[in-house]
Amino acid sequence: MVGQWFPKLARREPDGRWAHFAFHPHAEFYADFGDYDVTLEVPAGFVVGATGQRIEQRVTGERRTERYRAEAVHDFAWAAWDGFEGEERTVGATKITLLAPPHTAPARAATWESLEHALPYLGALYGPYPHPTLTVVHPPSFAAGAGGMEYPTLITTGGSSRWPPLGVRLIEQVTVHELAHQWFQGMLASNEAASPFLDEGLTSYAEWRALRALFGAGSLIDLWGLQVSLEAAGRVAAVGHGQDEIIASPAHAFPSMRSLAAHVYSGTATALSTIAGVYGQARLDAALSDYATTHRFAHPVPDDLLASVARHVGPGAASALRGMLFERATVDYRVAELTSAPQGEDGGWRSRAVIARGGTLQLPVTVRLELIDGQRIDRRWSGVEPVFVVEQEHEAPLARVVVDPEQAVLWDRDLLNNSRSLERQSTLRSSERAWYWAELLLHLLGP
Q1: How many CA atoms lie within 13 A of 84 on its CB side?
Q2: Element (H, E) at 80
């Protein structure tokens, strides 16, 4: 595998400065778009995969020469190995070549399923894939370090063929993630060294969207009835690191790749999922489509993303997103108090719940009262005030109160304090507690 060419041509910024920098292991590329014409010479028995279209090939004795041309790309990469087996399919207008080691049929099947779903799906969301070819390289086990990378019109995947039959979606995850980079970096070419969240963060969110559409709640794991979503796993990673770093930091500011992954990959995707949950999926889709299509081949910056969110979702959503990405903003909703009492001779019940908001984010949420007869009463809270008091009269006894029952606010720091139950009869105590903890477990496994 040959990639990450340094030194490379620097991009000249609008203010006249040259964006030149040394390679850093936590970042990748930032360069201008150009047209590449590359001739490769390898041993005759080697199979080659490269950026762009192959326009010429010939074998002379023990050597193979192949020539590739790519237009409007900001990098070039290639791989060669005499053990690759090649497969080709056409998805829409794109010819896809998959290069993989022998005896990897389950991995190849999982890769094709992911590609055939995600290429048109992401194209519908963020604009059509503009290149005529896509090369996908599944590295052999001895070269696993080359896996999980993105280059214009060429991606590398990886993973064991044992995973797909078990319902572990790691091959699908890496395939869709690297494919989504064709939009968020490949076609936009934002400055990943300065703002990696525009690359890895938006890509992770697109990956979550595409795999949920394909696999539902088991987008990461669907094993023996146990389903784990990418959103749930990503939220755990993001919350687990708390507010160690600012998500919108430059790549070199993160102390480790683990920290960068938790904040930039999982943190950004969790923030965007929260905006979608609170303000509407369709509105965020429109904002990201606007961002991805308006700034194609234009090197957008963070303010371009926030401007698209402000236009299509609203100023409040843009402010909340800025807080999560740039300001370590947090939110924690909790049920602080809960009482319910009968109304004497007239019958009925009167309940009072006090909901508190910790942190600086002011996101609207639903507060749900669940009665013992199954009835649900929803109240909407703007989230602006630090405390919200719900007083309600109803006919049946109150069973519990739940804040954000749809889990729209994945950014909520602690989901364990979002509900509280009233134990009315000793015979119900153990069952109510069991149900409560079962629901908390489901929250961790996936929404």
Answers
A1: 23
A2: strand 78-81
